[in-house]
């Protein structure tokens, strides 16, 4: 079985290579040209982003034609294809994948709407790839993806709402109100529709990170072993602080700090920190 995803999954390059995952790139459009998200490092990206102030670059998803060509190149191997993508509530990528698959109706291509992004999407992709490596069938893998999707929480906070506002992800009035009150929103991805949902607000980043920790503790308790992926834009100090806080609150079986993809950073700016958390057993029992 071949696994396909997109660059919103924030998969490290070593995982992509080791597990043989195909990544369809989302793109960033700067005034002087277009780059796929894997052609620019996070730090290079945020330098260019700051140089563009107050404007921000545009982003685009892979086209249905690109997906069609990607699937065509994989079909000769004769294996089933499982394509897992960023939430349909946040991007049209999954619909482009579905349209691309229609060109190959005699092939076994299954499209999955992850209803999440970043670390949450990555957990689903890793579960699929590990299941495939262990010889699981499509139905078994889809059932595990469903379990991972239901059990994963993705929550983050932002230093400013201005990037979401400029990118059209929230209303300007809401962004202005948050700016005037100096509030730091705590945002999750709603499992029902894959859209952003506000969990709370803090007057400082520290307070908002407290809200994040309280949410995860409420969901997972202090006993369940969990895999925690802390993610940030260009916010290493805050990522380190959140990591320490979560270690104190949760039963952490695995912890890591990763950078979010520049294509997501367009809409958040460098000041983003959060985490994706999943019960560890859902990511381990593939023997």
List keywords for this structure.
287 residues; alpha/beta; Rossmann fold; Hypothetical Protein Tm841, Chain: A,domain 3; 2 domains; six-stranded mixed sheet; four-stranded parallel sheet; 25% strand
Q: Tell me the β content.
A: 25-35%
The assembly state of the depicted protein chains is single chain
The major sheet is characterized as: 6 strands, mixed
Structural class by SSE content: alpha/beta
State the CATH class of the largest domain.
Alpha Beta
| Global morphology | globular
> How many strand elements?
13
- What is the number of helical segments per DSSP (H or I, 4+ residues)? 11
The mean pLDDT is 91
Strand order of the largest sheet: 10-9-8-13-11-12
Low-confidence stretches: none
**Helix fraction by DSSP (H/I, runs of at least 4):** 40-55%
Rounded radius of gyration (Å):
19 Å
CATH architecture designation of the largest domain:
2-Layer Sandwich
* N-to-C SSE string, H for helix and E for strand: EHEEEHEHEHEHHEHHEEHEHEHE
Report what the structure shows.
With 287 residues, this protein is α/β, with parallel strands linked by helices. The protein folds into two domains: 115 residues, 3-Layer(aba) Sandwich (Rossmann fold); 131 residues, Hypothetical Protein Tm841, Chain: A,domain 3. Helix content is 40%, strand content 25%. Strand 9 and strand 10 form a beta hairpin. The two termini are 17 Å apart. The model has no long low-confidence stretch (mean pLDDT 91).
């Amino acid at each position: 079985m071949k696994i396909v995803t997109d660059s919103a999954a924030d998969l490290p390059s070593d995982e992509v290579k080791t597990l043989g995952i195909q990544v369809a790139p989302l793109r960033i459009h700067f005034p002087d040209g277009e780059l796929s998200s894997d052609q620019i490092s996070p730090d290079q990206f945020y330098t260019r982003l700051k140089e563009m102030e107050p404007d921000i670059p545009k982003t685009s998803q892979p086209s249905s034609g690109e997906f069609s060509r990607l699937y065509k190149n994989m079909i000769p191997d004769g294996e089933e294809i499982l394509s897992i993508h960023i939430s349909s509530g946040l991007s049209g990528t999954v619909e482009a994948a579905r349209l691309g698959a229609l060109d190959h109706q005699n092939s076994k291509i299954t499209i999955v709407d992850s209803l999440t992004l970043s670390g949450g999407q990555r957990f689903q992709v890793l579960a699929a790839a590990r299941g495939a490596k262990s010889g699981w069938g499509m139905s078994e893998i889809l059932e595990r993806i469903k379990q991972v999707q239901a059990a994963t929480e993705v929550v983050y906070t932002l230093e400013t709402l201005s990037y979401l506002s400029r990118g059209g992800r929230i209303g300007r009035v809401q962004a202005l109100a948050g700016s005037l009150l100096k509030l730091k929103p705590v945002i999750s991805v709603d499992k029902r529709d894959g859209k952003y949902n506000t969990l709370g607000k803090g007057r400082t980043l520290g307070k908002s990170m407290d809200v994040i920790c309280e949410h995860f503790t409420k969901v997972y308790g202090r006993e369940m072993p969990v895999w925690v992926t802390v993610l940030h834009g260009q916010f290493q100090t805050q990522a380190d602080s959140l990591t320490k806080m979560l270690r104190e609150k949760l039963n952490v079986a695995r912890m890591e700090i990763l950078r979010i993809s520049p294509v997501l950073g367009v809409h958040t700016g460098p000041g983003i920190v959060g985490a994706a958390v999943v019960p560890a057993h859902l990511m381990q029992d593939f023997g």
